[in-house]
C-alpha cells in the first residue's frame, strides 16, 4: 500500500517516469506520521513503517535539515482520506533532492533542461500594444513581468532583454553564464525546489526571483497567472477550473518558498513528536520540540519558555501547510533580528485546544496576572518585553471568491509585516511562532457561528476557538459533512431494509382464508 502511493511523488521531474508508473488514487492507511532521527538523518515513519521512494529506497533527509523532515512528516499527518497527486509538495521536493544528490549525471541533465525555459520564458514576451483591448494585460505585464526582469537584472548585474510581439529573443552569453553559476551552486534540495518552480510557473525568471527571496509567493503566483487573470477580468472566472489552478499554483510555489528558506536551517537538536503538528521552540543553540494535541500536553512546552520573552501566536484558518511559504519574508525578518541563526521556529503548527490554556499557564508560571497581552490585527501596541506576551492576531480566512482570497492574502501579509516591525523594536532573544493550518474539508459549519467566533477573537477576547478544530465542529454534528451524509445513508438503508422485510413477510405468510381452505 505504501509503495503504491509513492509514484504520485514523480509529478515534478524533468526526467520521464516509467510507463508503468501510473499515478493511482490511494486511501490513507496510517494513523500517525512521525519523524525519526538516527545517525545518518531523518526518516519518516507511518505507523512505524519507514517512508520509501518510488524505487523502494528509504527516504533519508539529512541531519542538518530537521525542519524539512518535520514539514514532510506534517504533510503525511495532515493528509486527507485520499492521497491525491500534488498533495505532497514537500515530500516530492525532498525525494527529488535526495535523488539529485546521488546522481551527478541526472543533476547535470536537469540543469540543462531548465535552461531551455530561459529563452522561451513567458515573461520575456510582452504585448506590443498594437492590438485593441490589450490595455489591461499591458498594465499587468508592467506590474509583474517587468518588475521581475528588472530585479533579476539588478541582482545578477547582467542585462535581461525582453521582446515585444512574437519575435524570438536570446540572452547574452554573460547573462546565461551568471545564471548558470547560480543554478549550479544550488544544493540538491534547492535545485529540486527550483525545478518544481520552473515547471509550475513555466518561467525560469519567476523561479529565480522566488528562490532568491526577491519576490513573495503571492507576487510570483500573480506573475505566473498574468494572462489567465487578464482573461478572467475580461470574460469572467470559470469555477472549478481557474480557482483550482490558482490554489494548486499557490501550494506549489508556497512549498518551494518553504524549502528555499528552511531546507538549509541548522538546528542542533530536535525531539521526536507524538503528533506532527509541531511547533519547535528555539533559543540559542537549544531546540525543543513539542505539540499542541491536548491541553495537558502544554506543560512541557510552557516550561521551556523563559519569563522574559515574546511569544507571537498567529492563527491562519483553512490554509494548506505549504501556503505558509507566502509569509517566509516575515520569517526571514524574525530570523535576522535574532542573534543565533538557529533561533528560528518552524512555521507550522495547529492550535487544537485553544490559546487560553497557553495564556493561563504562562501567567501561572511567571506569577504575573498581566503576563500576556492579547492584540487584534488592527491594534498592535507593544510596550516592553519584561514578561511573556502572547500576540493573538486573527488573520483573514482564504475562502470565497478568488478576488476575496487574494485580498485576504494581501491583508494577512500586511498584518504579519506590522507585527514583525513592532517586534523588531524589542530587545528579545526568544520568539515562538504558532501558525494554524488544516487542509481537511469539514465545511458546512454554521456561517453565523463562524462569523461570531471570528469577531470575538478580533475584538481581543482571549477565548479562542480554531475554525478547523474537530471538537468545534462536533458541537454542530448535523453540519458536519461526513456525519450528516452518514446519517442520511443510514436512514435510507434502514428504511429500504424494513420495506424489504415487510414485502417478504407479506408475500410468504399465508392469509387466514388460505389456511382455512387447506384445512
Automatic annotation (TrEMBL):
Chief location bin = mitochondrion
Q: Which GO BP terms, alphabetically?
A: mitochondrial proton-transporting ATP synthase complex assembly
SUPFAM superfamilies (UniProt xref): ATP12-like
| Keywords recorded for this protein, A-Z | Chaperone, Membrane, Mitochondrion, Transit peptide, Transmembrane, Transmembrane helix
Where does the source fall among the domains of life? Answer: Eukaryota
Record's subcellular location: Mitochondrion
Q: Which GO terms describe its cellular component?
A: mitochondrion
Membrane spanning residue stretches = 477-505
Under the heading Pfam families, the entry gives:
ATP12
- Family in the record: Belongs to the ATP12 family.
What name has this protein been given in UniProt? ATP synthase mitochondrial F1 complex assembly factor 2
Amino acid at each position: 500500500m505504501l509503495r503504491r502511493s509513492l509514484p504520485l511523488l514523480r509529478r515534478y521531474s524533468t526526467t520521464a517516469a516509467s510507463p508503468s508508473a501510473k499515478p493511482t488514487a490511494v486511501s490513507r492507511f496510517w494513523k500517525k506520521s512521525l519523524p525519526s532521527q538516527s545517525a545518518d538523518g531523518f526518516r519518516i515513519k507511518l505507523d512505524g513503517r519507514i517512508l520509501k521512494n518510488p524505487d523502494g529506497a528509504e527516504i533519508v533527509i539529512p541531519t542538518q535539515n530537521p525542519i524539512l523532515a518535520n514539514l514532510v512528516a506534517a504533510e503525511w499527518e495532515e493528509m486527507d482520506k485520499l492521497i491525491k497527486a500534488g498533495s505532497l509538495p514537500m515530500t516530492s521536493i525532498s525525494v527529488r533532492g535526495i535523488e539529485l544528490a546521488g546522481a551527478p549525471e541526472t543533476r547535470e541533465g536537469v540543469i540543462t533542461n531548465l535552461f531551455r525555459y530561459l529563452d522561451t520564458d513567458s515573461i520575456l514576451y510582452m504585448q506590443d500594444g498594437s492590438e485593441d483591448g490589450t490595455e489591461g494585460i499591458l498594465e499587468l505585464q508592467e506590474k509583474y513581468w517587468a518588475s521581475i526582469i528588472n530585479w533579476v537584472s539588478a541582482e545578477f548585474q547582467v542585462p535581461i532583454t525582453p521582446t515585444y510581439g512574437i519575435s524570438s529573443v536570446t540572452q547574452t552569453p554573460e547573462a546565461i553564464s551568471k545564471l548558470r553559476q547560480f543554478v549550479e551552486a544550488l544544493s540538491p534540495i534547492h535545485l529540486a525546489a527550483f525545478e518544481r518552480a520552473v515547471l509550475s510557473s513555466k518561467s525560469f525568471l519567476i523561479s529565480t526571483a522566488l528562490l532568491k527571496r526577491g519576490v513573495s509567493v503571492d507576487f510570483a503566483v500573480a506573475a505566473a497567472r498574468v494572462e489567465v487573470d487578464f482573461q478572467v477580468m475580461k470574460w469572467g472566472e470559470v469555477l472549478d477550473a481557474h480557482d483550482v489552478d490558482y490554489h494548486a499554483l499557490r501550494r506549489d510555489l508556497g512549498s518551494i518558498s518553504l524549502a528555499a528558506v528552511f531546507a538549509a536551517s541548522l538546528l542542533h537538536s530536535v525531539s521526536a513528536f507524538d503528533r506532527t503538528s509541531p511547533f519547535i521552540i528555539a533559543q540559542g543553540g537549544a531546540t525543543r520540540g513539542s505539540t499542541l494535541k491536548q491541553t495537558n500536553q502544554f506543560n512541557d512546552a510552557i516550561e521551556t519558555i523563559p519569563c522574559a520573552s515574546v511569544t507571537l501566536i498567529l492563527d491562519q484558518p483553512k490554509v494548506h501547510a505549504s501556503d505558509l511559504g507566502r509569509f517566509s519574508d516575515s520569517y526571514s525578518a524574525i530570523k535576522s533580528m535574532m542573534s543565533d541563526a538557529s533561533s528560528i521556529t518552524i512555521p507550522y503548527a495547529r492550535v487544537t485546544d485553544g490559546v487560553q490554556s497557553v495564556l493561563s499557564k504562562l501567567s501561572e508560571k511567571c506569577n504575573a496576572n498581566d503576563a500576556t497581552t492579547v492584540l487584534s490585527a488592527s491594534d498592535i501596541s507593544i510596550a516592553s518585553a519584561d514578561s511573556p506576551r502572547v500576540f493573538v492576531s486573527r488573520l483573514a480566512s482564504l475562502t470565497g471568491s478568488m478576488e476575496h482570497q487574494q485580498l485576504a492574502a494581501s491583508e494577512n501579509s500586511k498584518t504579519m509585516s506590522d507585527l514583525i516591525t513592532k517586534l523588531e523594536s524589542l530587545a528579545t532573544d526568544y520568539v515562538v511562532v504558532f501558525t494554524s493550518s488544516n487542509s481537511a474539508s469539514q465545511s458546512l459549519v454554521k456561517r453565523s457561528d463562524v462569523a461570531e467566533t471570528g469577531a470575538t477573537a478580533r475584538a481581543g477576547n482571549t477565548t479562542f476557538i480554531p475554525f478547523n478544530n474537530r471538537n468545534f465542529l462536533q458541537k454542530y454534528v448535523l453540519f458536519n459533512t461526513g456525519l450528516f451524509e452518514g446519517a442520511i445513508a443510514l436512514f435510507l438503508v434502514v428504511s429500504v431494509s424494513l420495506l424489504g422485510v415487510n414485502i417478504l413477510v407479506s408475500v410468504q405468510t399465508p392469509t387466514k382464508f388460505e389456511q382455512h381452505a387447506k384445512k
